[in-house]
């Protein structure tokens, strides 16, 4: 999957008085010029504080939202242009699993009915073979065969996530997009669901996009990690590189805020300072400049683009980009918000 220049805004409702006064239409800038690629069979972790746009990105990738600009290509096909049967076929190949599967499960349908419905609607199996497939799916996600006859409310949070995963797997997808899959679960249950996902990924050769704010989980699961801040990807690299030698000041601050038990991985970078700016009013230039301890004049004037690093990975920060004008990296004249 290749994402290029993806941008998404949401208009903000304005009062009648504001409209009458002719005030400007306001919009939340949820994604700005996002570039990303996901390789077949890998797990890409997408991480950032809440409100950084990671869930909006996930929803754009499965076309729950239509982006304002940019391109998403999957297997060479332009996803943003898909309509009708072609879009349904894409949605079968790329499945999303949500944080709360309970809200998307019909409370009056047994788990068996939910899975059979998925198999029938997408014509995955003829009716005579559906029962056997339901049993197969339950085994695959570690639920007992008796689960087929029970209603969603009879299951715990972790078991419901397993039902959600089974429903996604019923369509034999190539790619799973897991949006905050385990954030509502207890830590011990989180580990079980995450391990299940790892096992399934390897066994079924799935491509996984794992969207989460928990760095621990992302580190455990992902081959590569993309770090997002205020709707932009600021760093993307192999997991070992992001966690072992983070380059972007925001990644360094995120890691400093979640210290590792491993002394070798501790970072001396200061933890995050200040509040996350409103997505209605994103700072000019680098969106992180109002919280960045290394900001300099150029950061307010020019938005840093993702640049490849010599050691691999990419980073969007003027400390690593060629100087085009004005102040140079190292001129640490801190910019006021
Ligand atoms: Fe900090 Fe400037 Fe880099 Fe942004 S571009 S992260 S403000 S040094």
TrEMBL record:
<keyword id="KW-0813">Transport</keyword>
<dbReference type="InterPro" id="IPR027417">
    <property type="entry name" value="P-loop_NTPase"/>
</dbReference>
<dbReference type="GO" id="GO:0005524">
    <property type="term" value="F:ATP binding"/>
</dbReference>
<keyword id="KW-0067">ATP-binding</keyword>
<dbReference type="InterPro" id="IPR003593">
    <property type="entry name" value="AAA+_ATPase"/>
</dbReference>
<dbReference type="InterPro" id="IPR017871">
    <property type="entry name" value="ABC_transporter-like_CS"/>
</dbReference>
<keyword id="KW-0547">Nucleotide-binding</keyword>
<dbReference type="GO" id="GO:0016887">
    <property type="term" value="F:ATP hydrolysis activity"/>
</dbReference>
<comment type="similarity">
    <text>Belongs to the ABC transporter superfamily.</text>
</comment>
<dbReference type="InterPro" id="IPR013563">
    <property type="entry name" value="Oligopep_ABC_C"/>
</dbReference>
<dbReference type="InterPro" id="IPR050319">
    <property type="entry name" value="ABC_transp_ATP-bind"/>
</dbReference>
<dbReference type="GO" id="GO:0055085">
    <property type="term" value="P:transmembrane transport"/>
</dbReference>
<protein>
    <submittedName>
        <fullName>Oligopeptide/dipeptide ABC transporter, ATPase subunit</fullName>
    </submittedName>
</protein>
<dbReference type="GO" id="GO:0015833">
    <property type="term" value="P:peptide transport"/>
</dbReference>
<feature type="domain" description="ABC transporter">
    <location>
        <begin position="1"/>
        <end position="255"/>
    </location>
</feature>
<dbReference type="Pfam" id="PF08352">
    <property type="entry name" value="oligo_HPY"/>
</dbReference>
<dbReference type="Pfam" id="PF00005">
    <property type="entry name" value="ABC_tran"/>
</dbReference>
<dbReference type="InterPro" id="IPR003439">
    <property type="entry name" value="ABC_transporter-like_ATP-bd"/>
</dbReference>
